[in-house]
Amino acid sequence: xxxxxxxxxxxxxxxxxxxxxxxxxxxxxxxxxxxxxxxxxxxxxxxxxxxxxxxxxxxxxxxxxxxxxxxxxxxxxxxxxxxxxxxxxxxxxxxxxxxxxxxxxxxxxxxxxxxxxxxxxxxxxxxxxxxxxxxxxxxxxxxxxxxxxxxxxxxxxxxxxxxxxxxxxxxxxxxxxxxxxxxxxxxxxxxxxxxxxxxxxxxxxxxxxxxxxxxxxxxxxxxxxxxxxxxxxxxxxxxxxxxxxxxxxxxxxxxxxxxxxxxxxxxxxxxxxxxxxxxxxxxxxxxxxxxxxxxxxxxxxxxxxxxxxxxxxxxxxxxxxxxxxxxxxxxxxxxxxxxxxxxxxxxxxxxxxxxxxxxxxxxxxxxxxxxxxxxxxxxxxxxxxxxxxxxxxxxxxxxxxxxxxxxxxxxxxxxxxxxxxxxxxxxxxxxxxxxxxxxxxxxxxxxxxxxxxxxxxxxxxxxxxxxxxxxxxxxxxxxxxxxxxxxxxxxxxxxxxxxxxxxxxxxxxxxxxxxxxxxxxxxxxxxxxxxxxxxxxxxxxxxxxxxxxxxxxxxxxxxxxxxxxxxxxxxxxxxxxxxxxxxxxxxxxxxxxxxxxxxxxxxxxxxxxxxxxxxxxxxxxxxxxxxx
Length: 628
Fold this sequence. Notes:
Blueprint: E1 6-9, H1 13-25, E2 33-34, H2 37-47, E3 51-55, H3 64-75, E4 79-83, H4 88-96, E5 101-104, H5 116-141, E6 146-150, E7 156-159, H6 161-167, H7 171-174, H8 179-182, E8 184-187, H9 197-204, E9 208-209, E10 214-217, E11 223-234, E12 240-249, H10 251-279, H11 283-298, E13 302-308, E14 315-320, H12 325-328, E15 332-333, H13 338-346, E16 350-352, H14 364-369, E17 375-383, E18 386-395, H15 403-442, E19 446-451, E20 456-459, H16 461-466, H17 471-474, H18 488-499, E21 504-511, E22 517-529, E23 532-542, H19 544-566, E24 583-584, E25 590-591, H20 593-600, H21 611-617, H22 620-627
Parallel strand pairs: 1-2, 1-3, 3-4, 4-5
Antiparallel strand pairs: 6-7, 6-12, 8-10, 9-11, 10-11, 11-12, 13-14, 13-18, 14-15, 16-17, 17-18, 19-20, 19-23, 21-22, 22-23, 24-25
Helix pairs in contact: 2-3, 5-10, 10-11, 10-15, 11-15
């Protein structure tokens, strides 16, 4: 979301400033950078940011998780945790706050918003590696190193307690013994005796060191990988008086190096998974990429991802690696069936060292695939305390997986669960977006969305048509720009009502691009976000036909009233001639009776002769009648 306000809660000032700069380079606004949970709660209440990047470990009495809980409870602001390792206790606490994700430090620019979940693990790994480095440095400098001195003939003159422990020789027993007898070293790969570094130092007069694959064979035959160096002991006159050998057990260093290599492999896996998560919302592509990486890093036979069918509660194999991928993909397990079903139903991880001895194992998998599965690692995919599926890793050897593998898969599952939820939300939002687009495109009313500054943020085609512009031309324009001069004050008054939370309906006139005025009926309703006024939704109806109908009605009423005004009733004294029977009108003119009546009433005339007039005018027709 462009121009979003993001509050950064980070007590490392350099990291905080770096995050702030990256966010601003991405086009976001950072209202504040704070270093404590208390400040985060206070600033979040004042600034109401769109997102909080929250470091879990903060200085002070309130950590990031507790601060996130306060912020989400009071303001419902999404939280992305800034951290680096997800131990089980921290994960459980963090899950309660329902974070939007986890952002691991350090991170690439394009990972800032979507790969958050991996930083938790990565940060903790980096912390542990730094601890190991400090531990190793301290070990190399400490007196815990084995120290043996010898005379110029190569016989032992001194041993410290650590040398005694590593060689298996007591100091009193070793004194006077040949150094090569007490300090027995061989090449780890060739098993051949290695030249003593003291002999090299005495011969060349320099400090000599052993190779990287040297084993110290103790008196009892125990072999210890060591790192050592030998040097001549020189007196004030420059004479060589003996030699000193310093060595130490590097078993722990090797373990740390192996742990480092393993953690680097884990981080590589999580980084690759992150890239898959942010590259597409195609769930099958994401899962296939992640499973291939898990298989490569762990060196296992196969991996699979199973999702719960929300309608049947069955577990469906959504994605699986080779071999037999086509056989297993789409497979359905009844609720609770097999190790995958058990883990999904109970929401618990499983590390089964030998599937043949576990009654929960569904043997049909072995029969169909032809793979003799033994070690099976299963981790649930959880979204907001709801299990939506599992990730399963299988191998044909017994006791293949350890706690490190389980921790890695659980961290990956946390990221994968978010990806599953994002993909499902995307599908649902895409469906809803399609419905909304079809609905708003097809309705006869104009729909306009305004922000709190009365700027147009959305308009459907009908609304754009009413205002005489394209939707693209209207976005970002002020609402009053398209109001007819006589409607501006009314529209301002109505928008003020919406700011107070009052919906209203009123008539106004919109000014089209051609300068014409279109009468409309506007139904406006206020919009809110997090309890704060966020804009207005306006439905705009064209009332030109209604207006024309009302004008026509008014015209007809006026004509009727005019006609009625002309109608007069014959009453009172009417002057009439006693001889010709003409009538004098109001203007003093004499008219025939029928003309006067016609002008002063709605009566019409038909002309004929009465009997008397007929006899008078046509007597010839009545003579025979009289005679008869």
